[in-house]
Amino acid sequence: EIEMDLCGHATLASAHVLFNHLDFLGNRIQFESESGLLYVERNGDLLTLNFPARPPELNPGLPIVLEGIGGKPEEVLLARDYLLVYPSEKAILELKPNEALLAQINLDPGGIIATAPGEDCDFVSRFFTPGAVIFEDPVTGSAHCTLIPYWAKRLGKNRLHAIQVSERKGELLGEYLGDRVSISGRATT
Hints:
Blueprint: H1 8-20, E1 28-33, E2 36-43, E3 46-52, E4 57-58, H2 63-69, E5 75-78, E6 82-85, H3 89-93, H4 99-102, E7 112-117, E8 123-128, E9 136-137, H5 144-155, E10 159-164, E11 170-176, E12 180-185
Parallel strand pairs: 6-7, 8-10
Antiparallel strand pairs: 1-2, 2-3, 3-12, 4-5, 5-6, 7-8, 8-9, 10-11, 11-12
């Protein structure tokens, strides 16, 4: 229903199939995409995506976005996606976005990231895509192109442990590489 300019799911799934089901020889795959070259490396059961970084900049935010997501973010920033920063993991877990209200806006191809410091990791997040059939994405590689630069700067470290606290949950390991980010995780057929 919408086309994303960068999709971690598709990149990870393609690499997983090539490595595990189509006998790709080697440990690194290069993909050409609308966002430039994307790389996936295999290291044991971890797949590491190498994507362009998308550092966010302060932005006042659209009132409908803030009302639709709810809660009281401490900061609002924008890259491709809106980035709403909340004070705690609990605040992220308690968000109850108004999907009908948010469906009135067009963020094509972007979405809305809600994030906060994590209790058992560096940061947590949730990702919402108004206008898509799947409103809340369970684990979002492309959102971490913005999250990793933001949290690296805020926490003063380049290697980060993240959990996307959607209903399904996903654990990611990230590294800020300047103009690129690496995002490591696992895939299951």
